C-alpha cells in the first residue's frame, strides 16, 4: 500500500495541509512542535481508528473548530481509493470511502499502517493499559470487525460497572440484582472473543518478534509474550500476574471468575475480571522486560513488537505492504540500532520518517525529504554537500529555478 496524497483541514495545528508522498522513503523534517508528527498521526488514525498520543479525539481538532478532516488517496497496486474521515469534538465521527458514506470501522480494511514512536517505550515499561491498547489496535488492523466487538465490550463494561456502583451506594446484595446476570452474559460473550483473539495474536507474534529482536539488537535474548488473564486468577492491574494454569474454555472460566468475584465486585463497585484487566507479559532472557531490561533492550523489544506487527500485516494483506511510519525514532537510538532498523525497513513499499534533524536519519532513508514548519508543508530539503550541517528548505519555486 502507498499513501500518495494526504489532505488535512483543522487537524491539530493545521488549518489546511497538502502533502504528496512517493513510494519508498519519505522524510518529514522540522523542529519539535512544528507539526510533523501530526501528519504521521493523521495517516495512522485511518488504520487504527485511534491516536498513538491521546486516547480521545477532541485534542485532534484544531482549537476553535468543531471538526477535523483527514483525506488520503491510497494506491493498492494499480487500484486507487480515497478515504475521508471527519473527526467531531462532539458526536460520532463520519467516514467516506470513494465518496460513499461508510462506518468508520470500515477504514482499516483499506488503510494498513504501522507506526513506531517514542511513546512505544510505554508499551514495555508502562502500565497494562499500554500493552492492551497495542494489542487491540493490531487486532483491529488484522480483523476490522474487532473494532465493533471492542466497542461493544467497553459499553457493556461501563453499564455493568455503573450497576455495581449503584448497588454499592445503596447497600444492595447480589440476590437483589437479577439484572446483573444479564450483563454477565453480554460481558462473557464479548470478552471471551477478545481474550481468544488476543491469545492467537500473541502466538502469531512470537516468531516475528524473535526475528525482529535479533535483527535490531544483533543478539538473541529469547523474547517471549504471554497473556496474564484475570479470569485465571491473575490481576495485573493490582500488580499480580500469577495465574492458575488449568485449562478450560474461555467462556466457562470467565463466567466462573465473575461468580467468584461477585461479592468483591459489589463491595468495591468495580468489574474485577475480564480482558480490561489483563496484561501482555513481555520477557527477555526469561525475565520481565518491565523492571529488568536495560534501556537498549526495552527499545529493542518495543521496536520488535512494531516490526513483527508489520510482518503479520504484510503476510496477511492482499493489498501489499503496510506503510511504515518512524516518528522521531532515530533520535532515540544509538548508531548501531539506527543502521540496523534502516536495513530492516528498507524493503517496505513505503516508509515515512519524521525527524527534528535530517542527519539523525540514516542516509538510505533520506531520498525524499520535506521541511515542516509552523503547521505548513514547505518544499524539499537541500543537504549541505560537504559538512553535513542541518539541511535547509527549498521552496517549490526555487526548486524549479525560480526565486525564493
From TrEMBL:
SMART domains associated with the record: AAA
The alphabetized list of GO BP terms reads: DNA replication; DNA synthesis involved in DNA repair; double-strand break repair; SOS response
* Ranges of compositional bias, category Low complexity: 388-404
PROSITE patterns from the UniProt entry: RECF_2 (PS00618)
Q: Where in the cell is it found?
A: Cytoplasm
Q: Which GO terms describe its molecular function?
A: ATP binding; single-stranded DNA binding
- Keyword field contains NAD: no
Q: Which GO terms describe its cellular component?
A: cytoplasm
SUPFAM superfamilies from the UniProt entry: P-loop containing nucleoside triphosphate hydrolases (SSF52540)
**Domain AAA+ ATPase positions:** 23-384
**Positions of the region Disordered?**
381-404
Q: Lipoprotein as a keyword? A: no
**Highest taxon above the source species:** Bacteria
Q: What does this protein do?
A: The RecF protein is involved in DNA metabolism; it is required for DNA replication and normal SOS inducibility. RecF binds preferentially to single-stranded, linear DNA. It also seems to bind ATP.
Question: PANTHER family, per this entry?
Answer: DNA REPLICATION AND REPAIR PROTEIN RECF (PTHR32182:SF0)
Q: Note the NCBIfam families from the entry.
A: recf (TIGR00611)
Q: What is this protein called in UniProt?
A: DNA replication and repair protein RecF
Q: Which organism is it from?
A: Microbacterium paludicola
Amino acid at each position: 500500500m502507498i499513501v500518495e496524497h494526504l489532505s488535512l483541514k483543522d487537524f491539530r495545528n493545521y488549518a489546511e495541509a497538502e502533502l504528496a508522498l512517493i513510494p519508498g522513503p519519505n522524510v518529514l523534517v522540522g523542529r519539535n512542535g512544528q507539526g510533523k508528527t501530526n501528519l504521521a498521526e493523521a495517516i495512522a488514525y485511518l488504520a487504527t481508528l485511534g491516536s498513538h498520543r491521546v486516547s480521545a479525539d477532541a485534542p485532534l481538532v484544531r482549537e476553535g473548530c468543531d471538526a477535523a478532516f483527514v483525506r488520503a488517496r491510497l494506491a493498492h497496486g494499480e487500484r486507487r481509493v480515497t478515504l475521508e474521515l471527519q473527526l467531531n469534538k462532539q458526536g460520532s465521527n463520519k467516514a467516506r470511502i470513494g465518496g460513499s458514506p461508510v462506518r468508520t470501522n470500515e477504514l482499516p480494511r483499506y488503510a494498513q499502517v504501522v507506526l513506531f514512536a517514542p511513546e512505544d517505550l510505554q508499551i514495555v515499561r508502562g502500565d497494562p493499559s499500554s500493552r492492551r491498547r497495542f494489542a487491540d489496535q493490531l487486532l483491529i488492523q488484522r480483523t476490522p470487525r474487532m473494532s465493533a466487538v471492542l466497542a461493544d465490550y467497553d459499553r457493556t463494561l461501563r453499564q455493568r460497572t455503573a450497576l455495581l456502583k449503584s448497588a454499592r451506594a445503596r447497600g444492595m446484595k447480589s440476590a437483589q440484582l437479577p439484572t446483573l446476570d444479564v450483563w454477565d452474559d453480554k460481558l462473557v460473550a464479548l470478552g471471551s472473543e477478545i481474550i481468544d483473539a488476543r491469545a492467537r495474536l500473541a502466538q502469531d507474534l512470537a516468531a516475528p518478534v524473535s526475528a525482529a529482536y535479533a535483527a535490531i539488537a544483533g543478539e538473541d535474548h529469547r523474547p517471549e509474550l504471554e497473556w496474564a488473564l484475570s479470569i485465571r486468577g491473575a490481576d495485573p492491574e493490582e500488580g499480580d500476574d500469577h495465574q492458575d494454569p488449568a485449562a478450560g474454555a474461555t467462556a466457562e472460566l470467565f463466567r466462573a471468575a465473575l461468580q467468584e468475584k461477585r461479592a468483591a465486585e459489589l463491595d468495591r463497585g468495580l468489574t474485577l475480571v475480564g480482558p480490561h484487566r489483563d496484561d501482555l507479559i513481555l520477557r527477555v532472557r526469561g525475565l520481565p522486560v518491565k523492571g529488568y531490561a536495560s534501556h537498549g533492550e526495552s527499545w529493542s523489544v518495543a521496536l520488535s513488537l512494531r516490526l513483527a506487527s508489520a510482518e503479520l500485516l504484510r503476510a496477511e494483506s492482499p493489498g501489499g505492504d503496510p506503510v511504515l511510519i518512524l516518528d522521531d525514532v532515530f533520535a532515540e537510538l544509538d548508531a548501531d540500532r539506527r543502521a540496523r532498523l534502516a536495513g530492516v525497513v528498507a524493503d517496505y513499499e513505503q516508509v515515512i520518517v519524521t525527524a527534528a534533524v535530517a542527519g539523525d536519519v540514516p542516509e538510505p532513508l533520506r531520498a525524499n525529504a520535506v521541511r515542516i514548519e509552523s503547521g505548513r508543508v514547505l518544499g524539499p530539503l537541500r543537504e549541505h554537500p560537504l559538512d553535513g550541517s542541518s539541511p535547509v528548505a527549498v521552496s517549490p519555486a526555487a526548486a524549479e529555478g525560480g526565486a525564493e
